[in-house]
Amino acid sequence: MADITDYFIDKFRKGLDQDRVDPRYFRPRAYRNAAVRFRKCSIDDFETRRDILIREAGLNAFLFRADMIPGCDLLSDSGTTTMTIEQWAAMMTGDEAYGSNEGYFEFKSQMGETFGPGLVDDDSLGGSSKSLFIFHQGRAAENAFFSVLKNQLQKGNASFGQHLSKDLDRELRERIELKIRSFSGEETVLTESSCIIPSNSHFDTTQGNIENKGMIPLNMPCREHLANDEEFLFRGNMDIEELDNLLATEGARVPLVYLTITNNTGGGQPVAMSNIAEIRKITKKYNIPFFFDACRFAENAWFIHRNEEGYASRSITEIVHEMFSYVDGFHISLKKDGLVNMGGALVIRNGGAFAEKYPDFTEGLTDYQIMAEGHPTYGGLSGRDIKAISEGLRTIVREDYLDSRIKQVGRFGEQLVKQGLPIIRPVGGHAVYIDVDRFFDGRADDGDFKAISLVALMLIAGHRVCELGLYAFGSYNDGVESPPNPRVNYIRAAVPRLAYEDQDLFSLAEAAGILAENRDKIPGVNVDYGRNLSMRHFKSRFSFKG
Ligand code: F0G
To answer: Which of 58, 106, 275, 453 has its CA 20 to 30 A from that of 395?
Structure first.
């Protein structure tokens, strides 16, 4: 019999936040704080921050002391997570044995559970796996991967000719040639052994590691992304037609195809399952291995669950299993969707296209790893770190966690919009990207790098964000500055997992609003040091112009 409590339960349920930005009745976070960290400084210390910024940091956000940031530190969502109490408890049980520690076996079995059957081999005889390699972070895995791949290609005397095929799409050819010039500084000379590594978009360290081995990283974001289509829900997709053309004409030069999920460089945007499946189909047609850069796999799965037809009733874990069933391997920085502060891994599917094509690869990788990181069963991590990862992988696929996280990032984005900031929409999973070209109405000179100023002024306001645009991805050779191609010009506000509340993020949005109102007064910068260096945004120093 319905009574008055039923009446109110019905009212409460209907008032609950489903997807609205201003709900009547907020759905609480899926967790509550179990430990907090007090600030060492106050938001009122504007002059102190200005001094540190100019004198110590040379306007470079990476060089600004974190303990002097009273607001949100959104430099990265990587390694900045607040761990759960279950993770802290698991760390106490870490086994610090030198080889084959207990945590390794738990990790291996958890990787199987998280990513699905067939990827991580279950060698019940014990010992280290031939498919799972631990690293201390993502880029260490990337470096190992491309070092060993280069050795394998050299051993095989790979030779692909000195000219790009005439059947290669003209636009694509120009992009490849530009890429070669941007890092070799020479007029397009392709060598017999030049390889091309395509992706929806490589992250900067992946790009750096590929170039460092003399290979050519090539970004192929989908057209909807390039056209800034705000209605399109999977802007992380790869351009399938371009991929097909590249593999049909220059497939021999492509050792593998990459997909970054979610697409960090392209705005933290998700990739649709249908796009993943199509890439698998094409790579299979040309017999080319297919890999994920899987840092934010769970967030990607949440978007598929929410927005792709046919996936609403599938669990996050089921979706993750399907996503990974298409690939021949992946590397992952566990500092993102591993929910830990340090860790990475590389997985090569036993019997997959990559393992078949490069049969000596895992042996070479084991040698490399022993020399550089330690035995593959700990790979530069302590036993307690490994325990925290296994626990983190169990939490990260919880739908209530992902709901809290991704909707919070969305609300933050909408606050920035309310404050007059142009952002990439729809908002991605881990970060909000401010569109610098639109912010300055296309009126800023590229060479002024005004995004660097904007980030610096945000630091004075008390919050840290990060330039990921003309400076981070452009290059400077022989006195000529080249913007990234395709052009990216963003400032990223990456939200650490489980660390901030809406009030903190809204404070940042309001400070950004003050800058938006005064955008005409924002100066350019002089680059005082490092313009011609590789990965220059980590190292350069600047000063305000004028
Ligand atoms: N791949 C992607 C897509 C990344 O976002 C990152 C790191 C890496 C690889 C490298 O992993 O840091 O563990 O060595 N991204 C961080 C960021 C640094 O701020 O987006 P790592």
So the answer is: 275
Average pLDDT of the chain, as a whole number: 92
Match 């404070």 to its residue by tokens: 507
Residue 344 Cα to ligand 1 midpoint, Å, equals 10
Q: Best mutation site among 62, 197, 264 for ligand 1, i.e. most ligand atoms within 8 A of its Cβ?
A: 264
- What atom in ligand 1 is closest to the CA of residue 202? 3
Instruction: Give me ligand 1 centre to Cα 166, in Å.
Output: 36
Say what the pLDDT of residue 243 is: 98
pLDDT at 123: 59
Q: Sorting pLDDT into bands at 50, 70 and 90, what band is 487?
A: confident
- Distance from Cα 343 to the centre of ligand 1, integer Å: 11
| CB of residue 206 inside a 6 A radius of ligand 1 | yes
Partnered with residue 536 across adjacent β-strands are: none
Burial annotation 388-418 (CB, 10 A radius, 16+ → b, else e): bbbbbbbbbbbbebbbbbbbbbbbbbbbbee
Q: 78 CA to middle of ligand 1, Å? A: 7
Backbone phi, psi, residue 330, to 5°? -160, 160
Among 266, 267, 270, residue whose Cα is nearest residue 294:
270
Of 396, 370, 223, nearest in space to 297 by CA: 396
